[in-house]
Amino acid sequence: MSLTRRQTLKLGSGGALALIISGGAGFIDRRSDGEVVSLPDDPTTTTTSTSTTTTTAAPVQVPSLPVAVDAAVIALGRRVIATTGEDDLQTLLRALPGIGDDPLVDAAAIVRDDFAQRRTVSVDGWVLAESEARAAAVVALLCEADEC
Amino acid sequence: MLTDARSLPSGTRRSADVCVIGAGAAGITLAMELMGSGLSVIVLESGGTDVEPDTQDLAAGDSVGRTLETLDNPVRLDQTRLRYLGGTTNHWAGFCRPLSPIDFEVREGLRRSGWPISHDDLLPYWDRATEWVRITDGDFGLDTWEQRLGLAAPAIGNARVEPFVFQLTYPTLFGLLYRSDLEASVDVEVMLHANVVNLATDDGRAVTAVQARTLEGISFDVTATAFVLATGGIENARILLSSTDADDSGLGNATDQVGRHFAEHLQVYAGFGVAESGAEALAGLAGDEVTIPSGRHAGNRHGAKFALGLTDDHLRDEATTGVEMQLLVGNLDAGRPAEEAGRAGTSEISALLGHRAESPESVVSLQALAEQELDPESRVGLGRATDATGMRRVELDWRYSADDRARVLGGLRTIAEAAGEAGWGRMQLIPGGVHADAIDNLVQGEYITLYSATPSEIDLDNFPIGVGFHHMCTTRMTDDRNEGVVDPDCRMHDVDNLWVAGSSVFSTPGVATPTYTIVALAVRLADHLKSVLL
Predict the structure, then answer these.
(1) Which domain holds residue A84?
(2) DSSP string of B436-463?
(3) Which among B161, B310, B340, B356 is the top mutation candidate for probing chain A, defined by the most A β-carbons within 10 Å of its own β-carbon?
(4) What pLDDT does A32 receive?
(5) Residues of A with CB under 8 A from a CB of B
(6) Overall number of domains in chain A
(7) Which tens digits make up the pLDDT trace of B62-102?
(8) pLDDT recorded at residue A47
(9) What is the average per-residue pLDDT within A94-115?
(10) How far apart are CA A34 and CA B318, in angstroms?
(11) Which pTM value belongs to this model?
């Protein structure tokens, strides 16, 4: 399975990234007034959302995605890869629920269910849901491949 | 009345209906409960009304087992308990909550678990103990305390984890608080500077007299109808082992149970947490104050706060031991969790959770207390060295196992998973990676000043485990004299007129801090003694 631009954007809008976006909007900018900027369903109609943020870590702007990816999330993804040893993008994507499914999938519910079912992974001591850890790893790999 | 043994002529013999040895939480509660009952009471207290180094030195000894430490700082035996009026309540942190029903059950897979009495048996005594420890009442219901405090408990709960409430007394130093009552009493005499060195006996079946001496060399004894040992989980065993008139192995030790099963609470500074919703998720964690509405201490204010623990069902289903976790707000000013290069810290998790900037208000430190499984080889014994009274110093061989450590980790992870499931946030478990840079004064009070954390130091097989200064189970309450030392009335199995008070009689430690239950058991013992002696 190759990751096309379209799939990448689906990832951002309703797939694995949404697991985290719904859980806390980790990958998307907030406007200075705190309003969360929603990701569009259709990337062709997207305008960039590079509003001013209060972050201390400068977000990495990725032209191919209409969002700013927080460098801290990329760093976390790298730690997930280093901890688990899983660095194959396709394997990670296949293990993520939501890929190719309804883009409105309730990502937060998937994360909660991981915790409820004790599907967790420890990264530098942080107890993370498997799905959110994999999603962070996917982001790190995409960014390394200059796909984000 | 308060008297001083140093003013007695050597060779004096005193007598009373009840002789209580030790004026700490248990001994003073007993004295207060017996006051005015018609029974005469002599309480023998080793120290005076404040710390005296020479007396405190009597508590020194060797620790030959697991290291006694807290946050990487070594702890001496004489720092863990105090020998003056009020006893170890003089550095009590004031946390009160009752044991759980499961603590009284025999649990499959856990050696020597369970009490010969039930949780319900103790309920009325916990209620009465609230008066002595100075908290509102015996209602520890979550709804009750959310209403009283006007705060919500952490919204973390599933079949395995639940929030609970501590009532916090500020801190009730029994010697200070009840000194005037004791001074005014005509039927209770508290004799200071009276160091008990032997429980005299002819045949080992009854104590004939308590032999005591002062550091100045004055020897005297006390006879009584009933004797109560109330000197703490280490000294109770030490005095019994040292009393060898009838048996070299000690008094009431025919089955070799005295001093065994020594248990501590495993204190683990477990790591950090990042809340998803920031400060609002933390509002209830610091707790608040309430005013006691009625009773002896009406109008007194005390605290209450919420924490997290494993449910009885989970402990039962998993045959595991209790773990409780406090989420500490506001302890991070001086010691932020270290952000190690190349490792995931609170910044990364904050980003994961959607905080665009790390919010200090959303980060808490995690402090856990855990129960250990009883081990007969974990024990209080006697060393070769002697103290200034001529008694052999204590030798403590504290043991806990790799299984205990694994159960602690499992419990912490279970709580961290519940926090994620509830949408509360994420927890970083770095037991042993959290250090305090200074502990100032363990005798007058414990002050942990600085935290730092280095996740790279995590060694899950060998992380440091601290102590809670909770010395338990060395004279266990059991039905079977082959598994413990006292019966369900706290009377020695083999010594008819000797009872034991304090956490040494705990059959199983549980995870709740012990003082509240020590006091409840003392109230119960006072009732029992009245029923026997009056």
Answers:
(1) 5-144
(2) ES-B--TTT---B--EEE-GGG--TTT-
(3) B356
(4) 33
(5) 20, 23-26, 29-30, 53-57, 70, 72-73, 75-76, 79, 108, 111-112, 114-116, 118, 120, 122-129, 132, 136
(6) 1
(7) 999 998 887 667 889 998 999 999 999 998 989 999 999 99
(8) 32
(9) 70
(10) 44
(11) 0.89
